[in-house]
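So, could you explain this one?
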Amino acid sequence: MARDGIPMLMLIDDEPAQRRLVSALAARAGWRTIFAGDNETAIAMLGTQDGMQLDAIILDQWSPDYEPAGLVGEIRARRPALPILILTAHNNVAVAVDAMRAGATDYLSKPIAPERLLAALNATLTDGSDGELRPLTEKITAPLSFEDVVGSAPQFRAALAIAAKAARARVPVLIEGESGVGKDVIARAIHAASPRHKQAMVTVNCGAIPTNLVESELFGHERGAFTGAFDRHVGKFASADMGTLFLDEVSEMPMDAQVKLLRVLQDGEVQPIGARRPIHVDVRVIAATNKKLAEEIEAGRFREDLYYRLNVVQLTIPPLRERMGDIPALCRHLLTRIAAQPGLRGLGLTDDALALLMQHGWPGNVRQLQNALFRAAVLCEGDALTPQDFPQIAAQIKASDPLDRLSIRPRAANQPHRDGAGITLFEGDGHVRQLADIEADVIRLAIGHYRGRMTEVARRLGIGRSTLYRKLAELGIDSAA
């Protein structure tokens, strides 16, 4: 870190607008940014290993013909430990794969989502234990139908059932859930199953738009409506006419824009800035947030009347830690999708690797799991992923010591009775626990006892592996450690 304690970022980019955006976002997290407009300038600024103190580099792939892997290799030769983040054009996975194999730490797609850029920058300042949470794979196309959505946990299937019913109506839908649970995937599935599926689905990340441009972005403006409005701009509502508008991170919308959004939902009309008359639109709105809007209302950051307009149908997507039984199926599905990306190939997953993944808490949810699998697939030299391909995950599990949850502790007078190595047979009131709950504990214990060797676990329990995975899903096991 820089001598004054402020982290230093080098941005290698020749686009002034992109430079202003990235530096402004980095400044929010306390970073200072310096710029290099081309490779030669960047190398000259880096100098020797003892030269300029930097904490991270962001390298923008500014043209389709520009391959950043060569520059990454040169930077690595001079600064072996310096984190390098790549900005790539949307869906240009091949460039990112080459850059990562050359030594890049991460990549993000343009346009940049502020929360993902900040998470990636913050991760570079850690000791590496949080590396898998970095936003690697938001570019991989999300599934577009409910049949493609993987998950059998009861609470997850219940949310999908509500979404499927809501898809056939035109009412607004509000999707709540932690970052990374797949709110955008559910929104796409709703649109694909709706009568509007042949029309456009327009996505707006409300947190990624500068406050002074929110109204113009959503509702449009006329030429000359304000300083800098050199051309007429069609807003997102007009672009989504007869289709679906997905308002991601709607909780970040400024209060004045919330007022205008409420009017659009009430009247079906938008008033572009500078326009003489409103424009009628027929738009189905799906909103998503990683915050609880009820709490935002109490804090005075979100309008209650807008909340009720958006919350005609509400979905709450559970975090991955509450549906750990879905991990085996998710891994198979995600590895199939990853293998279809340019420069990658099909890979298996050993039992030991799967057991390792099922021991993790996944604070970044399905997105983090996808990122971990993608990183491992990019760097894997064998035919199957092993525990050695997930060093960050292994480090986090070791640091949290999950097996400690299975250790035997003295029982206090008010604690339920336990049998052997941590199996609870009785409730606190003295009644016998339900058989399904006891069975779930036995499976958890077996996975821990046999160190995640799922074939051995199934053999010792006297069931097939497929039956074991089915039971993990049916019992809603939230920990496999």
